[in-house]
Amino acid sequence: MIKNKIDFINFVSLFVLYFIQAMPYGFQSRYLPLVMRKQGVSITSLGLYKLLLIPWVCKFLIAALIVDVHKTKRFWLQTSLIILSIGSFIGMFFTNFAELAILLLILNTASATQDICVDWFAMNALKKEDLGIGNTIQVGGFKLGTLFSGGFLVFLMDYTTISQTFLIIGSVYMLSLLLLKFSLFNTEIDNSNQSNKLDHQEENQLPLKKRITLIHNSPATYWICVFVLIYKLGEQSSLNLLPIYLHDRKVSSAKIGFWTGISGQSLSIIGSFLGGIILKKTSKKVSSLKWLEYIIYIRLVPIIFIACLIISNESNYQKIQNTYPFNDQIFYALMFLVQVQLFFSGMLTTFTFTLMMEISFMASKNIQASHFSLIATCEVFGKLLFQPVISLFADSFGYSAAFVLFVALYFICIANFKFKPSKLILEDNHINQE
Prior knowledge:
single chain; about 425 residues; globular
């Protein structure tokens, strides 16, 4: 609940930070693949571009060796935002994908550094009773940023150049930096003694070996890391490949951008906010873990039907030597299922991030930010860095086999719940008894 001006500033700042943090991800996972595919780049090469997201997987090391040791997190947060703003404007002048790859690597490093600082800010700014709304803001902001860069900009793709796209992204970064300068950063200056105390007391003086030992001994750490590694592997692979599939079947960029981006991500955001409300209303009766388990099973239905529609359409497509037009009925049935999938995916993300924070709060106070950063790193790794393998598989065996694989990957996530740690089961039972 927002009780005072500081709480309001914290929530607004979190929303803005997670919004802009998502823009490189939406641009690289939704917008750029379609631009490159239009120029004849293979699916395997598109997948290899995901390796540029390696800084996100190295977040834990960046935090331990740089951000937690040198300067303050406020300094790194401001610096990363300046780099993102300037880098986006520089992108206006790049003309080939090799130059763009170098720029994206720099932007991803800055964005990953920003994420470390924002996670630290969230862990210190949010009270335990605010976790539901805090994670709703976090997930909603990130999804709105993805919607903007991976939906709205895709919708405009037929009318704008990539240089104009970078101009738009750079302008958004600059406006966000100015907004935060007069809200979050200004507030932190007014409370500098408390900020500096938090910034230096939390983890800066803790040796890396000791920090790793404390994380190792924290309850449920290994289970949650495995879970977030696989919980969106099938879904994310499906959502990343589907726009490429639709493009190859001659569906317009405007249609793809609207249905998989603007409409789908809007429903995902609604699902995220609804998930936060559900957690708030039922926190004393149903745990986030239990809600997570419910959604895992519900979300299986659209994923299976999407695979069936793809297989059916590909069968007809192959029969008449790749001249089969994309059937409108199949297209809209497919888009309906994608909307359902994204709606429940939004709820799932809110429940998952709430559980991640709850588990991090079980860790020692002085390593909670690093603990959460490690889990978040595993989450990013699972969603993004398996994509080169998935893309190679799709290139080698075709779309039908790829979507069957995505269903199989989803069942691995369901199987993981059989190994829930006893600490979580006891807390879940305690909430249900209340």
